[in-house]
Amino acid sequence: MNNKFFIRSKEEAICPCCGESLMVKDSRNRHCLNGKGDRIELRIRRLKCRSCGKIHTELPDFIQPFKRYIASVIEAVIDQTTTSCPAEGSTMRRWKQWFGQSASTINGILMAASLFFTREAIPLMVPTSLLQTLRDTGSGWLKKAMRQLVNSGNWPLF
Fold first, then answer.
1. Closest Cα to residue 91, out of 105, 104, 77, 101?
2. How far is CA 135 from the centre of its chain?
3. Among residues 76, 57, 94, which one has the least CA distance to residue 141?
4. In this structure, are residues 4 and 43 in contact, taking their beta carbons and an 8 Å threshold?
5. Please, how many CA atoms are within 13 Å of residue 37, restricted to the half-sphere of its CB?
6. Where in the chain is the domain with CATH 2.20.25?
7. Which of 41, 78, 83, 129 could in theory staple to 4 by disulfide, Cβ–Cβ 3.0 to 4.6 A?
8. How far, CA to CA in Å, does 68 sit from each of 52, 110, 125?
């Protein structure tokens, strides 16, 4: 099955680097794979910051940066809630390894974002992390966490 979707956010695009507004530069094709292994074709916009000149790609939240499978597939593998996945075993092992190595960094960035927005400090010795609390809310936690990380300009490049 081959679907093609044009992606355009209705939200005002803000540069995660400097906080200024973004303007549309152009668009490009991107594809992703769903849980059945079907290829989904997307046309996504590239945005340029009016101030710092950096270029950002506008991704829908169901797509993870630098990943080919949609977020729900990666999340199910990390949480071990799926019995079948179209990805190869080595790909699934890399997702688990990536998450294992990144979880504390992701949690730290979520804590910093929480402090920024709520102005309330979170004790460092809390037994449960914000990331774990988010995971406990059920499916969709990965795209929620990544949206916060990417849009805050704190995307960990690993």
1. 77
2. 14
3. 76
4. yes
5. 5
6. 1-60
7. 41
8. 29, 24, 36
Nearest 5°: CA angle at 131, between 108 and 156?
A: 50
Q: Strands 22-33 and 39-49, how do they pair?
A: antiparallel
Rounded to whole angstroms, the Cα distance separating 63 from 13 reads: 17
**Cβ–Cβ < 8 Å for 40, 3:** yes
User: Domain 1-60 adopts which CATH fold?
Assistant: N-terminal domain of TfIIb (2.20.25)
Its pTM stands at 0.80
147: closest CA among 63, 69, 61?
61
Residue 42 in contact with residue 7, Cβ under 8 Å?
yes
C-alpha span between 116 and 109 (Å, rounded): 10
10: which DSSP letter? Answer: S
Per-residue CA distances from 3 to 7, 8, 18, 64 (Å): 13, 16, 35, 19
- Tell the residue number behind the tokens 């945005």, with chain if given: 47
Nearest by Cα to 64 from 82, 87, 89: 87
pLDDT at 125: 62
Per-block mean pLDDT, blocks of 10 residues, the chain (158 long): 73 85 93 93 94 90 90 95 92 94 86 74 67 88 83 60
